[in-house]
Structure formats: C-alpha cells, structure tokens
Specification:
heterodimer; A: about 375 residues; alpha+beta; Rossmann fold; OB fold (Dihydrolipoamide Acetyltransferase, E2P); 2 domains; 7-stranded antiparallel β-sheet; 22 strands; disordered C terminus; B: about 280 residues; mainly alpha; MetI-like fold; globular; cell membrane (chain B); BP-dep_ABC_trans_perm (chain B); MetI-like (chain B); transmembrane helix (chain B); MetI-like_sf (chain B)
Chain lengths: ~375, ~280
C-alpha cells in the first residue's frame, strides 16, 4: 500500500501533441480513485505514466516516498489490469496468474498458495487449468484481476477493465471490484470513460478534459458542486441542460434572462453573460405557470422514470427532463418546466462555477 | 431450395472437382513418372511407347543406390546445410523483424524496402562476387560457404513475414509482461515467440526447403565430395558420356522423403502461418 503523488506531470508526444498538462494529484494510501473523462482527455496516458509504460515529459511521479520517473515498470511494485485483459493466450489461467511470481523467483509452494488464494477470492478455482480462449469475457476479466492480485502490489492500476463486458456483467463486476479493493485495501487508480462507474466506485473522482485537471472531489460533490461547465455536463446522465442567460441589475437583485427563461434573484453579482444549468432530474414538469415553456418531442420510458426530450418555444433548444414514470405526456403536448432555484447551477463566461447556494432567492417568475 | 436448384449445384460441384482432378493429374504426373521409373527395369524407362505402370516392378534401383552411392552422406549433409541455414536465418530474422514491428526509427521504411530488393537478385547474378567473398573469408569448402549465402537469400522473405506476424500480437501482452517483471529478452522468448509459432513454422519450412534444394552454391563453393548434399549428389551422376537416369530418379525420390515427413507434421502450422494477418480477427 502506498500513496501516489503526481506533481505538475506533463506528457507531450513526439508529434507535439500535449496529452497531459501539468497534472498534480495525490492518491492517498488505500484510496480508490477513478480517473474519468472523454476520449483523448489524457486519462489512459496518465495511468500509463504511473505504470511506467510511458515516459514523463515534465514533472514528477512518486509512489510512496520514491520518485519513480526513471524506475522500470517491473520495479514499481504495481499491477495493472488492461482493457483487453492482456491474458497470455498460450498459458493456462494458473500459468497466467503465476507468471509474474515465477519471474520474481518465488518458491513453487508459495506461488501455488497465492494463486489458489486469489482464485478462491475471485471464484475461479475450477478454471485454473483452462486456457483464456475457453473462458467467457467475465471469467477472463476475473483472471486479469487475479493476475494483478497475486502479485500483492502497492498500487492497482486499472485501464477501463469493464468496457468489454455486457451491461449486466459490468454491474456485477463493478461491485466485485469494489469488494476486492476494500478487502485488500490497496491504493487503486481506475480509468474509465463511464461516469456511472466513476460515481458508484470512487472515493474520489478525478475529472480530466483535454489533458487538464477539471476537478478532484468525492462523487457527490462533483455532482452537486461541479467546478465548471465541463464537469457539470460530463457528470450526470442525461447531461445537465444549459441556458445562455444575460444578467442585468434590477431593483433588489439581478435578472437572468434568455429567450427561454427569465429569473429574478436577490443577489448582487456583476452583470454580463452567464450559463444557467439545470439537471434533468431537477425539473418539475406539468405544473402551470413554471419558467420554461416547451413542446414534447420524444418520451423515453425507462421503467423507473421517463426521459422527456423537449423543445423550448423561445429558441427551439433541446431540453431533457427526467420525470416520474407515471407522468407520460404525448408528442406535441405543451409543457411548462420549473425548478427549485437551489438546484440550479450558474457558470460565468469562462465556464467557472458561480456559487449559487450562497444567494437568496427573492422571487420566481 | 428446389430440386432443380439442388441438381444445378450438384452438377457445378462435379464439374469443379473434374477440373481440380485434371489439374492435380497434370501436377502429379512428373512425380508419378519419377517414382514409377524407379520401380522399372532399366530398359523399360526409355521404352516407346512409355509405360505408366511398371510391367515388372522391382526395387533393385533402391538396393543399387544403397550400395553404390553415398546417399546417406548426402542426406546428412543436406540436413546440416538446411538446419544451419534455418538457425542462421531465424537468428537474424527474428530480431530484425521484431525491432521493426515494435519500434519506429528513422529509415525503417527504407530498411524494409531495401531488404525486399535483395530478394529481387537471382543468386546466379551474384555468384562471382559471392565466390570472392567466400574465398576471402576462408570459407571455401566449408558448410558455411553454402549456409551463409542461403540464409542471405531467405532472410528478406522471413523478415517480412515475421514482421507482419509480430505486428498482429497485441502490444498490451508485452506491456503486461513488462509489469509482471519480464525483461525484453524474456518477453520475446516467453510471450512473443510462443505466440508466433505458426509464422515460425512456416518460416522454418520455407528456409529448410530452400536450403535443401540448393545446387548452385554447393556446386560453386563445395568441391569436397564428402560435403555434397542431395541435389549435388544427383548432379554427380550426370556423366559426360553416360547418365544413369534410374539411379538419379531413385536418389531424387529418397531425397524428397524427409521433406514429405516434415511437411506432414507441420502442415497445419504452415497454412496458419501463410494466411496470418490476412483477415482481421
């Protein structure tokens, strides 16, 4: 177990592509951190730099007290689970799991004991003599985890380990990985583009975009208080709805106005352009006299609730609302959407969060 | 499908098999003639009209070859030359192909193309220059005088085939092995080469066959009859005044047997190696 520290780490590839830009991050001992972001945001590059599979262009990576920039992957005491599992096809499950231990010169009895212990933990004891091609995707995934576990590393690195599994198996393995991580208490850095995995598994979420760090916080904080417009849009499904509004001073407060929404709040903030964000689940639909007038385009019943895809009458903008499953309007119906101003998010022209929670609402229009 | 449809596809199959059998017949006829001639009495080989089936089959030719020629020595020498060529070729082709498949370096494309250009020269064009090199290095009348040029001529094909195959092996496997603690050499020997088995077997077979049938290099660089291989042994039976065709054909048949055995054992791998990388899996 060890703390992992990244200090101003940058990665520039040979073709001058900046993959990671001055990333600083501390992953505490035993913590489960999920690095999340869209494709090309630098999350896998970051993980590969920690693993030693990519060189670091600038900055320092430390595992425990040791700076590991120039330490070979095999000497970093880490274990990695790859997206493709990377099981050795010509070796049995047992041989796959014991490969690393054999290379490090462990005794046969010790190797067998550790392999069997890990196999038991992962419930793959009866697969030890099978070859990877004989296993299902879920079983291969377990073997890949087993191979990482037997090495008893200081840090687990996982690169989108569940992305090749079907939805049901993914949910199952998600809880399995959490259970194992808690049981072993090993510092874990887990990369994914799936925000559900990030929200459900992480102690802390690290959100990257374009190689830049956007936010590091517990999942609920990323959801409730996103640092910026990107995080607000990325975390939460369906994504947050954004309205470009103009703030003007009025008597006793500020008016936020756009073709779709008009809102008077008793706050004193600089006038100018802002983005107002409302999560689909924070909309209240169907009550008369709400803020936003819309027309129903598509209704998606999800079982537990319905997703409404609506078009605003002001600027024909698409808005998504998540409503109770019993509320089921039809295409073409006119609906007024409302929201509690405590639930709205406000971002300045640079996309940075403006703390709305500190404001006092005086009036809703 | 209707009955008429069944009939049509059945007829098409019959026609197809007919054409294939005819082609097979054309290809096999020389081999059959060679083999059947070894079982004929000497006067029947050139009898007109030629007989397809020996009228009075005899294995006398095989007994004669056994007692009157050095066929075992020639086979032994063929093995030494072929195995030596295979070993030298693989020792050079594996690192060359692997480094090209896994690394980007300045001039890689030029290197790979120039390797291919070497294959375009016929050995006979280079034989005078090669003779000079072989004698300068004191290799004349040694097995290496045949092994080194044979390896040089099989290298381009092998480098390209292994290069293509190495590229199909996922890099993640090697990265995983690196994290597991494997050195670069261990990654090559414990992960990459076992997975390259089909291509390696195809490579070994191609090189072995090429070296087994070499006549020009042996004819030019080996004058010591104790080092003759099978083709050179056959060639030694061509006399200025008289050629013993029956014995020549018999030695040729015996010379093919080790290759047939080799091919029968490795066929599955050879086909897999030849088609490797042809389709995305």
């Amino acid at each position: 177990m060890s703390e992992v520290t990244l200090s101003n780490v940058s990665k520039v590839y040979d073709d001058d592509v900046l993959a990671v830009n001055e990333l600083s991050l501390t992953v505490s001992d035993g913590e489960f951190v999920v690095v999340v972001g869209p494709s090309g945001c630098g999350k896998s590059t970051t993980l590969r730099m920690i693993a030693g599979l990519e060189t670091v262009t600038a900055g320092e990576i430390a595992i425990g007290d040791e700076v590991v920039n120039d330490v070979r992957p095999q000497d970093r005491n880490i274990a990695m689970v790859f997206q493709s599992y990377a099981l050795y096809p010509h070796m049995t499950v047992r041989e796959n799991m014991s490969f690393g231990l054999r290379l490090s010169g462990e005794y046969d009895e010790q190797i067998d004991e550790r392999v069997e212990e890990a196999a038991e933990l992962l419930e793959i004891s009866d697969l030890l003599d099978d070859y990877p091609k004989q296993l299902s995707g879920g079983q291969q995934q377990r073997v890949a985890l087993g191979r990482a576990i037997v090495r008893d590393p200081e840090v687990f690195l996982m690169d989108e380990p569940l992305s090749n599994l079907d939805a049901k198996l993914r949910t199952q393995m998600r809880t399995e990985i959490q259970r194992i991580q808690e049981e072993l208490d090993v510092t874990t850095i887990y990369v994914t583009h799936d925000q559900t995995e990030a929200m459900t598994m992480a102690d802390h979420i690290v959100i990257l975009n374009g190689g830049e760090l956007q936010q590091v916080d517990p999942p609920e904080q990323c959801y409730d208080e996103p640092n910026n417009k990107f995080v607000a849009g990325f975390i939460g499904s369906p994504s947050m709805n954004f309205f470009d509004v103009t703030a003007t001073a009025i008597d006793g407060g500020t008016r936020f106005e756009s073709p779709d929404v008009a809102l008077d709040l008793g706050v004193d903030i600089p006038t100018g352009d802002y983005t107002l964000g409302v999560r689909p689940e924070d909309f209240v639909a169907g009550r008369a006299g709400e803020y936003i007038d819309t027309v129903v385009d598509v209704v998606e019943p999800m079982g537990s609730d319905n997703f409404l895809y609506l078009e605003t009458t002001g600027s024909s903008m698409e808005v998504v609302a998540r409503v109770d499953s019993e509320y089921r309007p039809h295409r073409g119906d006119e609906i007024s959407l409302g929201f509690d101003t405590d639930d709205m998010h406000l971002f300045n022209a640079d996309g940075e969060r403006v703390a709305v929670t500190e404001l006092q609402t005086t009036e809703s229009v | 499908m209707t009955m008429a449809g069944h009939d049509r596809s059945g007829l098409r199959k019959v026609r197809l098999y007919g054409v294939l059998l005819a082609l097979l017949g054309v290809m096999m006829l020389p081999f059959y003639t060679m083999f059947s001639s070894t079982l004929k009495p000497e006067n029947e080989i050139f009898s007109a009209p030629a007989t397809l089936v020996p009228s009075d089959p005899t294995v006398q030719a095989y007994l004669d070859v056994w007692t009157q020629t050095d066929v075992l020595l020639w086979i032994g020498n063929s093995f030494v030359i072929s195995l030596g060529t295979v070993a030298l070729t693989l020792a050079l082709a594996i690192p060359a192909a692997y480094s090209c498949a896994r690394n980007d370096f300045v001039g890689k494309r030029t290197f790979l193309l120039s390797v291919l250009v070497v294959q375009m020269f016929a050995p006979v064009v280079l034989i005078v220059g090669l003779f000079d090199v072989i004698t300068q290095f004191g290799l004349f009348n040694t097995y290496l005088a045949v092994i080194i040029p044979a390896a040089a001529f099989t290298l381009p094909f092998n480098v390209w085939m292994l290069y293509g195959y190495f590229k199909t092996i996922p890099v993640a496997l090697e990265e995983s092995a690196r994290i597991d603690g494997a050195s670069q050499f261990q990654i090559l020997t414990k992960i990459v080469l076992p997975l390259t088995k089909p291509a390696l077997v195809a490579s070994i077979t191609y090189t072995f066959l090429y070296a087994w049938n070499r006549l020009l290099f042996v004819l030019t660089f080996l004058t010591d009859s104790a080092k003759y291989n099978i083709p050179r042994g056959v060639f030694s039976m061509v006399g200025a005044l008289q050629t013993d065709w029956r014995m020549m054909l018999t030695v040729s048949v015996i010379g093919i047997i080790p290759l047939l055995i080799l091919f029968a054992f490795l066929e599955e791998y050879i086909v897999a190696g030849m088609t490797a990388g042809a389709v995305k899996e």
